Known about the structure:
Blueprint: E1 4-5, H1 9-14, E2 19-24, H2 36-47, E3 51-56, H3 78-92, E4 107-110, H4 112-115, H5 120-126, H6 133-137, H7 140-147, H8 156-159, H9 161-176, E5 178-184, H10 188-202, E6 207-211, E7 224-225, E8 228-229, H11 239-247, H12 251-260, H13 266-278, H14 284-298, H15 300-310, H16 319-324, H17 327-333, E9 339-342, E10 349-350, H18 351-356, H19 365-373, E11 377-379, E12 382-383, E13 390-391, E14 401-406, E15 410-416
Parallel strand pairs: 2-3, 2-5, 3-4, 5-6, 9-15
Antiparallel strand pairs: 1-6, 7-8, 10-13, 11-12, 11-14, 14-15
Amino acid sequence: MIHDITPGTEEELKKGPMSAYVGIDPTGDSLHIGHLVSIMILKHFQACGNKPYALVGGATGMIGDPSMKSAERNLLDEETLAHNVSCIKAQLGRFLDFESDAPNKAELVNNYDWMKDYTFINFTRDIGKLITVNYMMSKDSVKKRLSRDSSEGMSFTEFTYQLLQGYDFLYLYEHNNVKLQLGGADQWGNITTGTELIRRTNGGEAYALTCPLITKADGGKFGKTEKGNIWLDEELTSPYQFYQFWLNVSDADAEKYIKIFTMLDRETIEAAIAEHVQDPGQRRLQKLLAKEVTIMVHGEKEYENALKASQMLFGKATAEDLRSLDEKTFLAVFDGVPTVEIERAKLPMPILDAVAVETNIFPSKGEARKMIQGNGFSINKEKFTDPNGQLAENDIIDGKYILAQKGKKDYYIINIK
């Protein structure tokens, strides 16, 4: 989990508990799993007795960090930022202890609180004079943006971002005795600007520790799917979809991710990897990873629901399990399944008419009859064996759906209009 550390960091940590912070840009009202790496570092940090600070960038979020970005981002207004900050704090509470009386309980700080009244003249006089343009130009985040063949270039606003982030570190050092900043590898330049400011202002020692930027084994971007980011907010990514993301990672990624995104100890992880190698087809490593991360983010109950939902397509689930799914999970599980429609007013309706006349689930009544009699047709995960039976109102799930299944793998959603 460690990419780079400044000299002396390890020795300082060995002296006893210290305070450290991670900065989070509140550009949205939910964190996504890309944020999880630095949050896990903070979680480990607190578990070892140190005091974590989560800094949300209410001020810097109005500007945008140029690191690893190809274009300048849209600026957010105060109201949107305030909403985002409050949502992010609630999510961070799942990982960090903000509420106890422990001396190392986590603290949430917002750099808007100390930046909002700091005038431009005072900032450039106090902070701007301490760091040279040459020093700022040497940072990778700046060099990469300036070297790109782009007519847009880099705005002064973005160029000064590292000074603002550096000032955050200086402020927390002076007011909260925070001596260590944690972050992703792309933040190294910004973080070390902070250590340099502290050295030049106070002659003090401050430290930096970064974690690697996580990628997939195939070199693709971690946490991205065809439908976008995997969010921690269950409204944006359902617990089922969240669970499925981890369940479907490759063997190589599962081996890497279980060390980063869980709090399992080394012995448990090594035993799980060894067991997985014996029989990779069982995907035991992926199942353990998906379980641990889903429980940490969404809780035990949502994990159980996600587990039930993930068994839905493979014949192990019951009618009761199916009816227990909420609409969002139901639609996520059967995403891509063909949908047909029947008007509510036409129910009850003979099953053969429903599947071979009103819909095209079967090409003919004869074929439908044959499969029903052969025990190969189900409605809502229950075998339907009477070819003279009816599709009725009490078959409807969630007030609008009926799940039909022919054979082992062919599903159809009947949408009741």
